Amino acid sequence: MEKFAxxxxxxxxxxxxVLGVSLLGEGKxxxxxxxxxxxxxxxxxxxxxxxxxEDALIAEIAMANxxxxxxxxFHLYQVAQIHGIxxxxxxxxxxxxxxxSAKC
Length: 104
Hints:
By secondary structure, the chain is α+β, with helices and mostly antiparallel strands. The protein is built from three helices and three strands.
């Protein structure tokens, strides 16, 4: 298995600010269009799972910064692929990757 060449060791601000989810001082006041699209697709795939807002914010960070997203959530993996986000789906015993245009 490949090792990651670079990992992020910092708290990154979210690209959008979501009331009740984002922390003050840790979210940007963007237009929210990427967040909305990711969130809506997650909701349609998994019937509005409780952590979709958090997942959408994380995916939006990966998209905006061209990071590779590592997830064990298959629906998040699918949505990341749709939006061209570099993504790795981690399943016990196997890994599925889609590199896209992300930094690896």
